[in-house]
């Protein structure tokens, strides 16, 4: 793990691979809401095996990065600026930016705010306007639960911290570790993250998205109210240079290598080709 400082806070990141591709050809791979960067390890390693350089980071409030308790620190535009700060720290002019759920939305925000830094976009399960009602129904009660049940949540977190981790880099053991890491988090910063995101924009406005012309690979699946396939279809129509890939389920990309990870690797080759 490495770190850099953004706005006075410590942000954790790590790099994998890159030995067989030019150092200026990176993918910044972002995690989902409340998840640590390690939940992308399996995909990162599959892409590294194809010769890619993958940079994983914990956005503020997540994983091993600092976890302030003020909701004002958790806005989509601040997350996007953290990604730009990572590129500055690594002295990278541009990168492909990708992620899952929250990570996909942050990648869109980076492209909208600093388009010259974005070579391409990988977007899995973006959360856009059609998901707003479901997101509110899920996350507004979650903020109250974090606040009203803080002591039981702290007890549960202490218990989860005592459970040994498998240390596996992939497979079911990895995801067991990820779930334990999420449960083991202090509830106060987690409540602040959800509160802060609900208070601001969840993604760039459609008029801003329509200006994004970098190549983009969108992956989504059916039967997910929080990540509706219709949002992915609409995003595909908005982005001038995008491809939409229909996943069979949420789990298909979780255990690479598979057809989706192969398609992502081919997309990266094409972006830099």
Q: Which oligomerization state do the chains in this entry correspond to?
A: single chain
**Helical run tally:** 10
What is the average of the pLDDT values? Answer: 94
Strands side by side in the biggest sheet = 1-2-4-3-5-6-7-8
* Helical content band: 40-55%
H/E series: EEEHEHEHEHHHHHEHEH
Number of strands: 8
Strand content: 15-25%
Instruction: Using the alpha-carbon principal axes, give the shape.
Output: globular
Largest sheet: 8 strands, mixed
Stretches where pLDDT falls below 50 for ≥5 residues?
none
- Briefly note the structural class of the backbone: alpha/beta
Radius of gyration over all CA atoms, rounded = 18 Å
Molecular structure report:
This protein has 273 residues and is an alpha/beta fold. It has ten helices and eight strands. The protein has an eight-stranded mixed β-sheet, sandwiched between helices. α2 crosses α3 and α4 runs antiparallel to α7. It is globular. The model has no long low-confidence stretch (mean pLDDT 94).
């Amino acid at each position: 793990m490495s770190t850099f400082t953004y706005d006075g806070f410590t942000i954790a990141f790590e790099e994998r691979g890159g030995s067989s591709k030019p150092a200026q050809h990176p993918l910044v791979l972002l995690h989902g809401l409340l998840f640590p960067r390690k939940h992308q390890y399996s995909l990162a390693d599959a892409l590294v095996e194809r010769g890619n350089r993958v940079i994983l980071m914990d956005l503020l409030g997540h994983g091993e990065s600092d976890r302030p308790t003020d909701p004002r620190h958790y806005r989509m535009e601040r997350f996007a600026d953290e990604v730009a700060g990572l590129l500055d720290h690594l002295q990278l002019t541009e990168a492909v930016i990708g992620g899952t759920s929250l990570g996909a939305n942050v990648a869109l925000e980076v492209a909208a705010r600093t388009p010259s830094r974005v070579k391409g976009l990988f977007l899995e399960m973006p959360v856009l306007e059609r998901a707003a009602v479901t997101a509110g129904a899920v996350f507004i009660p979650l903020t109250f639960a974090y606040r009203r049940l803080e002591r039981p949540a702290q007890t549960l977190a202490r218990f989860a911290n005592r459970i040994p981790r498998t240390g596996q880099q992939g497979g079911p053991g990895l995801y067991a570790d990820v779930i334990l890491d999420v449960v083991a988090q202090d509830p106060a910063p987690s409540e602040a993250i959800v509160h802060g995101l609900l208070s601001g924009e969840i993604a760039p406005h459609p008029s801003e998205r329509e200006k994004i012309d970098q190549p983009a690979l969108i992956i989504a699946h059916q039967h997910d109210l929080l990540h509706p396939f219709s949002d992915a279809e609409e995003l595909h129509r908005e982005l001038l240079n995008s491809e939409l890939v229909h996943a069979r389920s949420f789990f298909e990309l979780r255990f690479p290598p598979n057809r989706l990870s192969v398609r992502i690797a081919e997309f990266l080759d094409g972006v830099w080709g």
